[in-house]
Amino acid sequence: MANCLRVPMASSLPCSSSSSPSLKRRSMRTLCSMNSTKIPIPPVNPKDPFLSKLASVAATSPEVLLNSQKNSDTPPYLDIFDSPQLMATPAQVERSVSYNEHRPRRPPPDLPSLLLHGRIVYIGMPLVPAVTELVVAELMYLQWMDPKEPIYIYINSTGTTRDDGETVGMETEGFAIYDAMMQLKNEIHTVAVGAAIGQACLLLAAGTKGKRFMMPHAKAMIQQPRVPSSGLMPASDVLIRAKEVIINRDILVELLSKHTGNSLETVADVMRRPFYMDSTRAKDFGVIDKILWRGQEKIMADAAPPEEWDKNAGIKVLDAI
Questions:
Q1: Which tens digit of pLDDT belongs to each residue from 108-125?
Q2: At what angle do helices 235-260 and 171-183 cross, to 10 degrees?
C-alpha cells in the first residue's frame, strides 16, 4: 500500500445542482488544498483490524482524517471508531491466538478411539459380553488396518469376576478374546497395569513371547473358574453347570501351562487356591517376560554379583562345603 493517499477527484464527491456559485468556488479551493495534502498512513498489516479500518476510512472519507481534532490526551485516529471492539466472540479470541492455529475445528473423538488410533486396546473392566464384543472388534479392525504393525493390549481387569469374587461373566468371554488374539497375524504386546486376574491373567500370558510386560506394582492372579449363581435351578442342572466349570478349569490350566512353560501339574497345583503374583513372581512363573521399570536395566547392570558382595564383606567361600 502506498505511503500516502490523495483525496479523490472532486467529481466523486456529492454536490447539489442548486448550490450557489460562491459555495462551489469555496468547495473547489478546499478540495485543491486537500488534494495537495498527503495523509500519513502507517505500515498496513492486513490482519490488523485498526489499520484496516483506518485505510478504509482514508479511501472513502478522507476529510474525516483531515478534519480530525488533535487531542494530546488520546491517541490519534481513535475517534473514527464509533464503538471500538477488540474481539467479537470468544471463538474469535481462540482463533486469533497463534498456538491454537492448528487446533481442530470439530470435537475430538472419544478416548477409546484415540487409543485405537495408536493401536492400543485397553481392557479396564471385567470381561462381560459388551467388553468382549468391543475388544474383539478392535483387534479385527487393527489387523485389517495393518497386519504387520504390532498391537498393544493394556490390561487392568478382574477377569470374569468382580473384585469381591462374584461372577459377572461366563468363562467363554475370556476364551473369545484369547481365540481372537491367536488368530491375528500381528505381534501382540500385552501390558498389565493394575490387576490381571483369572481370565485376564491368561490374556496377559498369551501375548507374543518376549513382548509380555508388567508394571512394577501391578498384580496378577490365577484361580479356578467359579460356578455362577444357581438360584432355583434343579439339582440336575446344577450338576451340569458344575461339570462345565470343571471343563473350563482344565482348559484354563492347559492354556496357562502352554504360555508360561510350566507343567500341567504345577499350574493345577497353584490354582487350587487363588495364586497371587507380584511383577517379580509373575516373571519367575512365566506369565510375563519383563517388568516395565524405568531405569531398571542400568540399576541391574550397576549391581555387583553375589561373589563380589561376599568378597567385599570378607566372606570366604569354602569349596568343601
A1: 567 878 888 889 999 999
A2: 30
